[in-house]
Every structure is written in C-alpha cells, then in structure tokens.
Amino acid sequence: MSENIIELKNLSKTYDDLTVLDNLSLDIKKNEFFTLLGPSGCGKTTILKIIAGFEYADDGKVLFEEKNISNLSPHQRPVNTVFQKYALFPHMNVYENIAFGLKIKKMPKDQIDKKVREMLKLVALEGKENRKVDSLSGGQQQRIAIARALVNEPKVLLLDEPLGALDLKLRQEMQLELKRMQQKLGITFIFVTHDQEEALSMSDTIIVINKGKIQQMGSPQDIYNEPENSFVARFIGESNIFDGIMHEDFKVEFCNTKFDCVDKGFEKNENIEVVIRPEDIKMVEPQHGMLKGIVTSTVFKGVHYEIEVKENDRKWILHNTKNAEVGSQLGMDIYPEDIHIMRKEKN
Ligand SMILES: Nc1ncnc2c1ncn2[C@@H]1O[C@H](COP(=O)(O)OP(=O)(O)OP(=O)(O)O)[C@@H](O)[C@H]1O
C-alpha cells in the first residue's frame, strides 16, 4: 500500500480569466505535518478547498488512500477543516461546540461525553466547558475550533492560517501545541500559512507555491539551506542574491570573483543566481577577504548584529555576533558549501 494519504494529480483551476492552479501535482504522506507556504493569492486556500470538497478543480484528481474522491461532497470526505475565522457557534458553550458534530451523527450521549472530555484535555480547556465561547480569548477559541474538528477523528486535518488572528506570543505557543497534538494523535495535518518562520518551525514537509505552481518541495532544512530558485530564496529568510556564471562543475563566478562551490550538473557557463545566507559570511581582515567592502550600517538584533556592507556597487547583509564599525573596511569570506547555486526562477 502507498505511504501517501493524499495525492493531487494535475489539478488546474481558473476563476474567470485567472489561472489559480496550473497542472499542480503533489503527494502527502501519512502522519506528516505538511505545509503549503506562499504569498497571499498564490492558491493555497484553493488547494485546501479542493481537498476538502468546498471547491472543485476544473481538471485533475484528488486521491485519498489511492481512491478518487474528487466527486465526493465535503461531509463524505475523511477530512476536517479549521479556518482562520473559527466559525464557532456563539450561542453555545465550549462543550456544546465541541460536541456538535457528534450529536449530528447521533452518537450516544455517554460516548459523546467521553470524546468531548478527551478533547478538552488535549487542548487544555478542562474546567471551561460551560463557558460561552465569546467570553474566551482568541487562543482559547482557536483551541475549541481545533477540538471541534479533531473530535470527529478525521484522518486528515486541514488548517487554513489557523493562527493568523493571534498575537505573536500566543501564536508561538499555539505553534508548539499544534505540533504536539499532531505528534500525539499521529494524523496528517495539512497547514496553510504565508509565514515562513511558522512553516519552518512546524513542518515535516513544506511546499513553496507561487502563482499556482510549486516552486520547491522538501524538508524545512532543504528549503532553507538549498533553495532551488530565487523566489524560494527571497521568500524564505533573508538572503544575499547575485547573478553569476557557473563556469564548470564546482566553479562559479559572481561579484567579479571566482569561487569554488559544491554544485555540479549545470551547463558550461550557464547563467545562474547565487544565494548566500547572511549568517554564512565570515568577517575577516580586509586584506584576507575574497571580497572587500565598507560597513555602511549595523543594527543590534538581540542574537546577532545585522551589518550592511557595500562591496563595489552591491549591498550585502551579514549576521554576526560581533559588531563592526560603520565606515570601516571589511573582508568577507564564504565557504564553498555556503554558496547555493540556483537556476533562474520558474515561470
Ligand atoms: N471564488 C472565487 N472567485 C474568484 N476568484 C477567486 C475565488 N477564490 C479565490 N479567488 C482568487 O484566486 C486566487 C488564489 O486565491 P487563494 O485564496 O487560493 O489564495 P491564498 O494563497 O490562499 O491567499 P491568502 O493567503 O491571501 O488567503 C486569488 O487571486 C483570489 O482572489
């Protein structure tokens, strides 16, 4: 049996003249925390809605455990959705909100009670079951929404920017809690966000989408350390990105300087882009650097200083725990493994 729980096959979707999804295919494994990451309007929610059955693709298929579910209505699909706007029932208390789906299914009362109590425990809301939902904080309401979805024991939980309305601290707490719940329950989470830090800290697998096309799929480490194109590099973290030429395997030139790198498989003298993370640039004495520049500004960021350097007419950003003096000359060194070569952005 396949290790995939959901497979999307060649999905296309157009609204009026706007192509939102363009022949998109992807596989989601059982029990993974899978994140769709991309800028606003790139088609993330549309993918989620097509999996849930709230929208239908113009073309392509949705497979669940190898069965085609493309034509099933939402309630026939073994998935549940948590939205950013929690859509709780304001006139019901916490308990009734969580129990709602099970009552509709006409489950016996004692079983409902057992399951609701399990959920209250899971989302740390024991003791709050009789509270009206609008008397609770945003974070607590979000937990009710999650409990209400999980109580139905879906095989897949779809989460559409579920933490978007929370302030930063609560958001970070809920990120940890969601991850903990997912690991405890062992069910597949498909999570939508436009926040790259959130995606990096929570996911097993991330796909980065732009304009309805997958730009890259991989682990958070792959996506951060080895962006495949400049869209991904720009979208994930801060980067120094320059045009360059891949002269031959392991030899690249950028900023008018030849460097050794660890990449191969490009055409001879192929035009490429290089990405270098700010924390990977070594600060050395000016005479010892492969590149030289002048410090134009420094900002203390807590863990590191953010140092801006002007090298010829190019701007570089460096992160270093040591500060540098504005106006001073600085040498910069980069190890071969820290030079990431990218093909030009996919269109
Ligand atoms: N029902 C609809 N009718 C017309 N256009 C739509 C409809 N639903 C979505 N769109 C358009 O499709 C594009 C993709 O929308 P989608 O909601 O999937 O993006 P998203 O990546 O989830 O963005 P966000 O992060 O802002 O929610 C957007 O340009 C949106 O305006």
TrEMBL record:
Keyword ATP-binding: yes
CDD domains per the UniProt record, alphabetical: ABC_PotA_N
EC numbers, comma separated: 7.6.2.11
Record keyword Transport present: yes
InterPro entries for the chain: AAA+_ATPase, ABC_SmlMolc_Importer, ABC_transporter-like_ATP-bd, ABC_transporter-like_CS, Mo/tungstate-bd_C_term_dom, P-loop_NTPase, PotA-like, PotA_ATP-bd
Pfam family, one: TOBE_2
Recorded catalytic activity of this chain's protein: ATP + H2O + polyamine-[polyamine-binding protein]Side 1 = ADP + phosphate + polyamineSide 2 + [polyamine-binding protein]Side 1
Domain ABC transporter span(s) in chain numbering: 6-236
Keyword field: ATP-binding, Cell membrane, Membrane, Nucleotide-binding, Translocase, Transport
GO molecular function: ATP binding
Subunit structure, as described in the record: The complex is composed of two ATP-binding proteins (PotA), two transmembrane proteins (PotB and PotC) and a solute-binding protein (PotD).
Family: Belongs to the ABC transporter superfamily. Spermidine/putrescine importer (TC 3.A.1.11.1) family.
Task of the protein: Part of the ABC transporter complex PotABCD involved in spermidine/putrescine import. Responsible for energy coupling to the transport system.
NCBIfam families in the cross-refs: MMSYN1_0197 (NF043075), potA (TIGR01187)
Protein name: Spermidine/putrescine import ATP-binding protein PotA
